[in-house]
Amino acid sequence: MTTEPSRTVEVERKYDVDTATPLPVWQAAPGVDAVTSGEHRALDARYFDTADAALSRSGVALRRRTGGPDEGWHIKGPREGDGRLELGWPLGESEAVPDLVTTAISRWTTDPLTPLARIRNDRTAYLLTGPGGIVAEFVDDHVRATDLRSGTEREWREWEMELGPAAPADAAGREAFFTAVETAIFAAGGRHAASGSKLARALGF
After folding, report:
1. 3-state secondary structure string, the chain?
2. CA separation (Å) from 103 to 9, 108, 149?
3. pLDDT at position 71, please?
C-alpha cells in the first residue's frame, strides 16, 4: 500500500429529499452550462470507531468503501469552515484496518477499532460543467444503513452538492453558487439535511 495518502478538501452541502421528488433544474446555477447524464455507482461502506466513539466525538469518520471512482480507505477529518480534509488509501487485500490508516488516526485515538455501521448507497452522480471544467458534482443517493451495534436498519434519500476544481475560489462566489443551487433544490422539494452525515443518521443522530 502506498505510504502517502491522497488528499482532498471536500466542500459540500447535503439535503433531505423524499423518495419521489424530481431532480432539480440547474439552468440558473452560475458558471454552469451543461450537466452530464447520470452515472450509477453502487457504494458499500463500513465505518469503524472505538468502543467509546473517540473518532465520532472528534468529528472524524473512518471507513472502508467499495464501489465508485474513489473506493478505498478514507479518513474524513473535522470540519474546518465549509470543508473537511479527506485522506484516502487503496483498498488493499485485507478488510482489517491497515497500519498506515491506524497511524494516521493515532492523533485522535490509539484504542482498538470495531465496525460501527454499514452504509450501502445506490448513487447517481451528475457533473455540472462550465467553460473551465467541473464546477460541482451533484449526487442523488438512495441509502440503506445498518447500525452494527444494535442491528437497527434505516433507509432514506438525500442529495449532495460538492464543489469541483472549476468552482469559484472566493467565498462570495461560492456562496452565490450555493444560493442558486439551494433555490433549485428547494423548488424541486428538497430541504436542508436534518443530520450532518450519513454515519450520524445511520446511528440515529
Report:
1. CCCCCEEEEEEEEEEEECCCCCCCCCCCCCCCCEECCCEEEEEEEEEEECCCCHHHHCCCEEEEEECCCCCEEEEEEEEECCEEEEEEECCCCCCCCCHHHHHHHHHCCCCCCEEEEEEEEEEEEEEEEECCEEEEEEEEEEEEEEECCCCCEEEEEEEEEEECCCCCCCHHHHHHHHHHHHHHHHHHCCEECCCCCHHHHHCCC
2. 20, 10, 25
3. 96
Residues (pLDDT < 50) of the chain are none
- The pLDDT assigned to 81 comes to 76
What local confidence, expressed as pLDDT, does residue 120 receive?
Answer: 98
Q: How far apart are CA 75 and CA 200, in angstroms?
A: 15
pLDDT of residue 1: 55
- What pTM was computed for the model? 0.92
Q: Round to whole Å and give the CA distance between 11 and 81.
A: 9
Terminal alpha carbon distance of the chain: 34
